[in-house]
Amino acid sequence: MLVTIATFSFPHEAHLAKAQLDAFDIPSFIADGHTINMYWLFSNAMGGVRLQVPKEFAAQAQELLDGPVEIAPIPESEIGPEPESVVCPNCGGALSKPYTAGKRPAFITWLFLGFPLWPIKKVRRCMVCNKITKA
């Protein structure tokens, strides 16, 4: 027999809680998630998206959801080295981010012709002087 331990207005909230229960090997099920995804205005009328667990896991699941969420720190070995900063040749600034050049003209020609004419390039844009350089 399934017991409803929590209700949510939106399905994504229920899926986050389900993921937390799955991490502790507690079987759980989401009821009415697909219906409310399609007809979100029905959420209040249906009582929301229901997170259900078997009766024998109800107390453990409720305690887990009511408590604080603990996030395990990432080990240093998985983080990796800091990315090297790219120096702008124009101003010498080290603040740059990846940028895709040519998206706007390619999109406009795609709208009118059905295919893009402009090439799209991966470049870097300086956040200090706004100059575009090769990646």
Counting structural domains, the number is 2
Question: What characteristic shape results from the CA principal axes?
Answer: elongated
Q: What percent strand?
A: 15-25%
Mean pLDDT: 86
Percent of residues in helical segments? 25-40%
Distance between the termini: 58 Å
Largest sheet descriptor: 3 strands, antiparallel
* SS-derived structural category: alpha+beta
Order of helices and strands: EHEHHEHHEHEE
Number of strands: 6
The count of helical stretches stands at 6
> What is the spatial order of strands in the main beta sheet?
1-3-2
The parts where pLDDT drops under 50 for at least 5 residues are none
Radius of gyration: 25 Å
Q: Short description, anyone?
A:
Helix content is 35%, strand content 23%. It has helices at residues 11-23, 33-38, 43-46, 58-66, 76-79, 103-113, and strands at residues 2-8, 29-31, 49-54, 96-101, 121-126, 132-134.
Describe this structure in words.
It contains 6 helices and 6 strands, in the order βαβααβααβαββ. By secondary structure, it is of the alpha+beta class. The chain folds into 2 domains: 65 residues; 39 residues, no CATH class. The strands form 2 sheets. A 3-stranded antiparallel sheet has the order 1-3-2. A 3-stranded antiparallel sheet has the order 4-5-6, with no helix packed on it. The radius of gyration is 25 Å and the shape is elongated.
Secondary structure elements and their pairing?
Elements (H helix, E strand, L loop, with lengths): L1 E7 L2 H13 L5 E3 L1 H6 L4 H4 L2 E6 L3 H9 L9 H4 L16 E6 L1 H11 L7 E6 L5 E3 L1
Antiparallel strand pairs: 1-3, 2-3, 4-5, 5-6
